[in-house]
Amino acid sequence: MSGKKYDVVIMGAGHNGLVAATYLAKAGRSVLMLEANDEIGGATQSVAAFPGFDARVSRYSYLVALLPDKIIKDLNLNFETISRDVSSFTPYSNVQGLNKGLYVSRNWDAKTEESFKEIDPTGNEGQAWQDFYSEVAEFAEKIAPTLLQPLQTRSELREHLNLPKTWKYLIEDPIGEVICDRFKDDIVRGVVLTDALIGTFASAYDLQANICFLYHLIGNGTGEWKVPRGGMGALVNELVRVASEAGVEIRTNQKVVAIESTTESVNVRTSAGEEFTAAHFLSNAAPGVLAQLRGKKKPDSLDGAQLKINILLKRLPQLKSGMDPKLAFAGTFHANESFTQCEGSYSEAKNGSMPAKLPIEMYCHTLTDPSILSPELSASGFHTLTLFALHTPASLFDANNETARQAALESAFASLNEYLVEPIQDVIAAIEIKTPLDLEEAIALPRGNIFHRDLQFPFREDGSQPSWGVETDDPRIFICGAGATRGGGVSGIPGHNAAMAVLSSN
Ligand SMILES: Cc1cc2nc3c(=O)[nH]c(=O)nc-3n(C[C@H](O)[C@H](O)[C@H](O)COP(=O)(O)OP(=O)(O)OC[C@H]3O[C@@H](n4cnc5c(N)ncnc54)[C@H](O)[C@@H]3O)c2cc1C
After folding, report:
1. Which residues contact 423 (CB under 8 A, 6 or more apart)?
2. 256 lines ligand 1 (CB under 6 A)
3. Which ligand 1 atom is at minimum distance from the Cα of 62?
4. What is the Cα gyration radius of the chain?
5. Whose CA is nearest to atom 2 of ligand 1?
6. Residues 481-497 pLDDT 10s
7. Pocket of ligand 1 contains residue 490 by CB under 6 Å
8. How far is residue 356 CA from its own chain's centroid?
9. Which of 94, 129, 173, 281 is deepest in the core (most CB within 10 A)?
């Protein structure tokens, strides 16, 4: 193979590939991006998902916490994220069978305190919450800047952070034990636990859950999840703008089908029959995709286990608890995600059954940012609702994706409807459902794993080679996507780090 020569060829034009490409082009490298799909952005696309309705939803990823301000500044991105006043709302029925809800605002306030007191009148649970999250916040603030530096070793990072108690319970002890130790109530435990499960098919007692928890809590030093103004596609549009201005060439409908590495270069062939040659090759695609193209063993990884449902609502549904839906859905709405329910659903799914009542969480983009709807839809009271179901692993869909999709949808609706005055079906204008197998089909996420592969702790083991966490066994080939160490999520971090690794390798 041979073909037109570039300094760098990147397989895939997800947000991380675009970040890598722009850093490299700004440093004077010639860069070509090859994207398999028609659309750019991978898991960060916004699309008009509902035929006949003027609404552009973030089709896959929807909230941003991990994207460092430094990357936004370095690349001069005109991209804004909006804080939500409400952190979460979790409806439940109390021991007397009354419909209640745990309300948590972003900053601890009287309404949150009152809500915790309904669960624990002693105030201990509320205090435990404040203590735990202030310890985690201290950890987050210290660790966040290290994500854009070469990897520290386990010992170096532990010493650098100098928070031995928090290190032990976040990194070494199973997070499930920690949660049960620090909190007494099953609902409160569940709200904490979900951050350890989103995107990961794990029990609360697997260390994989610790890693997931860590990434959900450390973004930008605060762990705050914000709404991207204009939807996730707004980020992609900005990245495409700065990449193009820096001279990056982006080609769509160019699936990479062959890679050959020699001592001088990496040669690449695409499904369109075109060939290219580069000094360095970056994979924005998952490590499993890269391994297959190189004839190597794919990394062991858990199945993806999330179901994503995008919904256009004619109006917000009323809640049995009497909570104003504009508050209940303004943050993250949890249903049937108590600690016990999450563990129970995990066991059901692990044993091959669709959980009878899926643990789900939802949020309403348009309560924070209505700009993704036409003014007419907004004025008529329409809203978007994103539903994310946990513990629906790809294996449950293998036998028949369509039948399992229907079963999962019914289970998710049953879960939600338990807390609504009227069934959600009555207020739905349009809907689309993405199973883990759909994610693999559409954007090549192996087994629908939303993080490309199992997440890894943000350090290297003592005694290992210095690294940015993006290297492969071939000095010309790097990972610039979510599958790198410190990848996963909308962060641009592996893109940045791969660019730095290439620039420091010459
Ligand atoms: C349903 C869902 C919800 C999520 N929610 C959130 C969220 O709210 N917040 C958050 O931070 N993260 C979320 N995530 C995770 C986050 O979106 C991803 O981890 C992140 O977007 C990955 O970005 P990336 O650029 O590394 O890879 P991707 O976005 O996966 O892009 C990789 C690109 O490579 C292309 N490609 C693959 N193979 C080839 C090939 N052979 N040739 C050419 N191109 C190829 C793909 O088509 C794709 O465009 C979610 C993910 C999913 C799927």
Report:
1. 413, 417
2. yes
3. 8
4. 22
5. 60
6. 999 999 999 999 999 99
7. yes
8. 25
9. 281
Give 73: exposed, middle or buried? Use CB within 10 Å, 0-12, 13-18, 19+: exposed
- Pairwise CA distance, residues 229 & 101, whole Å: 28
State which ligand 1 atom lies nearest to the alpha carbon of 65.
11
Per DSSP, the three-state class of 487 is coil
What's the gap in Å between 186 CA and the centre of ligand 1?
33
At 429-452, the pLDDT tens digits run 999 999 999 999 999 999 999 999
State which H helix or E strand residue 358 sits in: none
Residue 405: predicted pLDDT = 98
Q: Which of 445, 450, 455 best tests ligand 1's pocket when mutated (most atoms within 8 Å of CB)?
A: 450
Burial group, residue 44, by CB count within 10 angstroms (0-12, 13-18, 19+)? buried
42 Cβ below 6 A of ligand 1? yes
Tokens of 203: 């029990």
Give the pTM.
0.97
First and final C-alpha spacing in the chain: 24
Does residue 451 have its Cβ closer than 6 Å to ligand 1?
yes
Q: Whose CA is nearest to atom 49 of ligand 1?
A: 42
Q: How far apart are CA 424 and CA 316, in angstroms?
A: 9
Task: Say if ligand 1 is within 6 A of residue 255 CB.
Answer: yes
Instruction: For residue 1, name the pLDDT band (cuts at 50, 70, 90).
Output: low
User: How many Å apart are CA 505 and CA 502, to the nearest integer?
Assistant: 5
In angstroms, what is the span from residue 370 Cα to ligand 1's centroid?
A: 24
Cα dihedral angle (333, 306, 180, 329), rounded to 10 degrees? Answer: 0
Element (H, E) at 387: strand 383-389
Q: Which residue has the tokens 């973030």?
A: 58
**What is the 43 CA–ligand 1 centroid distance (Å)?**
4
Q: Using a 6 Å cutoff on CB, does residue 386 contact ligand 1?
A: no
CA distance linking residue 3 with residue 17, whole number of Å: 21
211 touches 195 (CB < 8 A): no
Neighbours of 277 (CB within 10 A): 19
Buried-state track 145-173, b at ≥16 Cβ within 10 A, e below 16? ebbbeebbebeebbeebebeebbebbbee
Both structure tokens of 314 = 């004619």
Residue in the structure block whose two tokens are 């990449």: 243
CA angle 208, 211, 212 (to 5 degrees): 90
State the Cα–Cα distance between residues 344 and 456, nearest whole angstrom: 25
